[in-house]
Amino acid sequence: EMLAVLVLAAAAGYQLRAPVTPSGVRRSRPACMGGFEQKGLPLAPGERVSLQLKGPAETLKHLTALCRESARSSSVTGIIYDIEWLNRLELIAEGARESLDELVKLAESAQGVEVLKMAWQAPVGGYSTDFAVVTLKPKMAASLDVKGDKQCLDYYTRHLKVEAVFNRGLQVESSRPNDDLLKVVVTGDAGRLKSFVRWAQRGPPLQRADGVDVSWSPTRT
After folding, report:
1. Tens of pLDDT along 143-162?
2. pTM given for the model
3. What phi and psi, each to the nearest 5 degrees, are found at residue 119?
């Protein structure tokens, strides 16, 4: 059957070729996937750093203020997640490397603060220079206003359940007040919610929203 397909394709003038490696061996193309597998593609200028920090509550509060002041003065965008029940902060910042290095130095030099993890990643975009602080509880709700044209938002809508429910175990509700706005409310584990928000900012394969506004709130349960 495969031979018949190849013969028909050749008769129709199609050339079925795989990419060629430097050694001359042809190989199949890797799949392009969204969600957790969609990594490493820069979608905004500059660089991105993610820091996980642990320390006394008052020290972390003071460090938060210093980092926000530094970020605002250098037009760095980002967000700080205050994971208060664990005495931890997660700082995500995007911008010029020199400015991000200053934020890293602030964190590393803070007395009594331990840098649990630091990762340099491809920038996503979508953050504000306000550098908001979000206080997380174990269970949270995130309300997203996703803005774009009809085709883009149709594409988002088709991916919502897969990304929120099947990939992350979250609960999701959505509505379309008009063709240019998709409203999404997602609830569940705070860590998985952060992952979903990042997916929404990156967008599913081949599409990306013009803007994603996010507001956070603790769940009632």
Report:
1. 999 999 999 999 999 999 99
2. 0.74
3. -140, 135
Neighbours of 98 (CB within 10 A): 9
Please state, in angstroms and as integers, the Cα–Cα distance from residue 29 to each residue in 21, 24, 32, 38, 206, following that order.
11, 15, 9, 15, 17
In the chain, the DSSP E strands lie at 47-54, 77-83, 88-95, 114-121, 132-135, 139-147, 171-178, 181-189, 211-218
The predicted-structure confidence for 14-63, as pLDDT tens digits, reads as follows 444 444 444 444 333 333 333 333 345 555 678 999 999 999 999 999 99
**CA-CA distance, 82 to 88, in Å (whole number)?**
6
CA-to-CA distance for 129 and 35, rounded, in angstroms?
26
Q: d(Cα 84, Cα 211) in Å, to the nearest integer?
A: 29
Q: Looking at residue 169, what DSSP letter applies?
A: -
d(C-alpha 171, C-alpha 163), whole Å: 11
> Is the pLDDT reported for residue 142 higher than 50?
yes
Q: Tens of pLDDT along 168-213?
A: 999 999 999 999 999 999 999 999 999 999 899 887 767 788 889 9
CA distances to 53, 76, 135, 165 from 171, rounded to whole Å, are 29, 32, 20, 6
CA-nearest of 3, 116, 1 to 51 is 116
Residues near 210 by beta carbon (within 8 Å), at least 6 away in sequence: 147, 148, 149, 152
Structure tokens at 54: 């642990």
Distance of CA 158 to the CA centre of its chain: 18
